Amino acid sequence: MFLSSLEPRTARTTAEVVKCVVWPLAVLTVLHRVIIKAVNGFRTDDFKPVYEAALAFLNRRPVYTANFDWVDPHYLYPPSGTLLISPIAVIDPERSRWLFILANAIAILIALYLLLRMFGLRLDSPIAPILVLAAFSSETVTNTLVFTNINGLVLLGEVAFLALLLKRRDLWAGVALGLTFAVKPILAPLLLLPLVRGQWKVFITAAGVPLALTLIAWPLSVDAWQFVEHTVPYLLESRDYFNSAIVGNGMYYGLPGWLVAGLRVVLGLMVIASMWLLYRYCRDDELFFVCTSTGVLLGASFLLGSLGQMYYSMMLFPLIMTVLLPNSVMRNWPAWLAVYGFLSYDSWLSGRWVETGRAAEYMKTTFGWSLLLIVVFAVLFDRYLAARREGRLEGGIEPSHLLRSPEQESTARSKPDQEPEREATAP
């Protein structure tokens, strides 16, 4: 009786087949990443210095005592962040780490659900298990859990901010962003979005939340000023280890300063041009504009700033999700070559081709972020040139095939050499 219930009485649709195949894979991948890989740990432990800082804070001992001459993970959160994470030290380190892993995993799952809802999808969509499986198979989610850092909670703050921003719930959007600022300002570039959209109330809570937490935490910390004197200078430096930013890899491989600066300038100009095209011609398509701009701004900050680590890449999930939109800049193979570079968990270290394998391993994230920014610029600029050539810039730079009726599109495909102007006048 039980076995017969597994066989459908009618032919399944493609969507049903996808769900029944992918959901078990997704669920087991999540459980494996959380229960096995994360609990086992590997290579480094981002949680240990955080737990020790929280314990020191609760016991009124100095927090900012890290020796930055060592390459081990350091505690870098400001006093406001110390206040927020201090409850983790109430219990023993092992169980606290497990709970922190679980909190990050749940935060990532909630963020993925919010992304689905932003794109008008529900849990019964076949996209849902594909998204969960892809996310938890990636390097960024896997190592966030394995190294046990706070990026999963930051991702939730980012997606909540975008969802609330799109719904025009400005004060709450600022709260979501402000809570991440209280720990680390990795999402600071996203303040450009409410600025250009005229959503000024976001800035009240985005600045107010970390300020209020700082005012509370400062007198409770015995060495708060050491964060300014000791930690901030280190945060402003570029380092040549565990750093996939252009400047980090440039330092590691000994590239000349002019080449590093030149690469940053060229890619920076592409980012500026992409943002101008998005704002000038795409801002009325709110979901496309907000999610694409988010990816461009954060990708640029990781690549062109002083520090970019591969597991930051989960903050690019909103841009990747735009592949579901017909006008997405992600609907081309170079974009997914880029995604492989910064999301894949594959290791390219080789025992046979040692130097080549090491270069591929250390450069794949930098390559991926760079290619992604180049692809976004190239797609938008090509659309701009096409729209200008066809005399329709005033109406935006949507791809021409999205502006045709189904009948016109069918005609265009059957007559590929026909000029666009003649297509537009064809009956």
From TrEMBL:
Residues 397-427 are annotated as: Disordered. It is found in: Cell membrane. It is an enzyme of class 2 (transferase). The keyword Kinase does not apply. It is a multi-pass membrane protein. Its EC number is 2.4.-.-. Residues 404-427 have a biased composition (Basic and acidic residues). The chain crosses the membrane at residues 98-116, 145-165, 171-193, 258-279, 286-304, 366-385. This is Glycosyltransferase family 87 protein. Keywords: Cell membrane, Glycosyltransferase, Membrane, Transferase, Transmembrane, Transmembrane helix. It comes from the Bacteria. The keyword Manganese does not apply. GO terms for molecular function: glycosyltransferase activity. Belongs to the glycosyltransferase 87 family. InterPro entries: GT87.
